[in-house]
Specification:
This protein is an all-alpha fold and about 325 residues long. The protein has a single domain, classed as ABC transporter involved in vitamin B12 uptake, BtuC (Orthogonal Bundle), CATH 1.10.3470. Helices cover about 75% and strands about 0% of the residues. The chain is built from 16 helices and two strands. The chain has a two-stranded antiparallel ribbon. The relative contact order is 0.16.
Length: about 325
């Protein structure tokens, strides 16, 4: 009981500290660095959500791009074919679709073993991607849907939606939406921390380390893994919906398994076994991409070289490297 209180107190203090650091950024940062920070926070939500399944439960999914992209697409379709102009409704609708899709894909994929689970998630991801890139989903909405598909090749545009019923101009929108992203980021982090410290989180780690032994002591293996898959999909969907409004352009590439691989890469880069590892990995990945973009012609080459350097420098992930450094500094110096 006491330990739970201590964890809760630490969590609230860290959440307050994060809010104190992040919320003043629209005043402290110029427009472009603020936009990069927005993308980093959104990417961090997705990576931390994925890590609940990957790092905590020990299941590698290459299909979470489906949850990311479908949340943005669902909200975009809601805006396009109804009179809804509210970001809040866009977000709820998109995240609900991501949760439904995660529940179905997770239920079917978890009937297989670990490696086949990964292959199944990739297969479902590519099925959903093909439905959008080939225009099948757009044709469900008749002539207007077909026109939208042919106009942008499966992409969709989202205008600046209202935030709490208020319209914001081009200059004011990013600072206002940044606050929405910060609240979502802190909320997702607190939720994941609570899960990580809970009996459910401990059970997931037991499943990761030895599923047979965990099942032997009465843990419902498939059910808990399914719970983890759905929660993970919801958080990745939240990130996808935020990303859609931030970039205001949704493309089928956000549904492709290679985008899932990006999430996995950033998560591994930060460190799977440390709670803040995916957060550090997401920030590092966005920063490296931003540096690589300065060399447009060789973007992928520069990004690849930078990633190789970081991986070799921090073989246990950025969080693991930071932990090792702190332990070294704390070690008493021998005479």
């Amino acid at each position: 009981m006491t330990g739970g209180r201590i964890d809760t107190k630490k969590m609230l203090l860290l959440a307050a500290a994060a809010a104190a650091v992040l919320l003043p950024m629209p005043v402290a940062l110029p427009p472009y660095p603020l936009i990069v920070l927005c993308y980093a926070l959104v990417f961090a939500i997705a990576c931390m959500g994925l890590n609940l399944l990957f790092g905590t439960a020990g299941l590698l999914s290459l299909g979470h791009a489906t949850c990311f992209g479908i949340a943005a697409y669902a909200g975009a379709f809601l805006y396009r074919f109804t009179t809804v102009n509210s970001f809040e409704l866009y977000l709820i609708f998109g995240v609900s679709f991501a949760a439904l899709l995660a529940a179905v894909i997770g239920f079917l994929s978890l009937r297989a073993t670990k490696i086949h689970f990964t292959i199944l998630t990739l297969a479902f991801c590519q099925i959903v991607y093909s439905l959008f890139v080939d225009g099948f989903v757009f044709r469900l909405f008749g002539g207007e849907g077909r026109a939208i598909y042919f106009l942008a090749g499966g992409g969709m545009y989202i205008p600046r939606l209202t935030l709490l019923g208020m319209h914001f101009g081009p200059q004011e929108f990013i600072p206002a939406f940044y606050n929405v992203i910060v609240v979502s980021f802190i909320g997702a982090t607190v939720l994941l921390w609570r899960i990580d410290c809970s009996p459910f989180g401990i059970a997931l780690r037991a499943l990761r380390d030895n599923a047979e032994r965990a099942e032997g002591v009465g843990i419902p293996v498939r059910l808990y893994r399914w719970y983890a898959f759905v929660i993970s999909g919801v958080l990745v969907g939240l990130a996808g919906a935020l990303y859609g409004q931030l970039s205001r352009q949704i493309t089928p590439e956000q549904l492709h398994w290679l985008f899932s691989a990006k999430l996995v890469l950033a998560t591994v880069l930060g460190g799977l076994r440390q709670f803040l590892g995916p957060l550090l990995g997401a920030f590092a990945f966005v920063a490296l991409e931003d540096v690589a973009l300065s060399s447009t012609a060789y973007h992928d080459l520069v990004l690849g070289v930078l990633l190789i350097i970081v991986v070799f420098t921090f073989p246990s992930g950025l969080a693991g490297g930071a932990t090792a450094l702190v332990n070294t500094l704390r070690r008493p110096v021998k005479d």
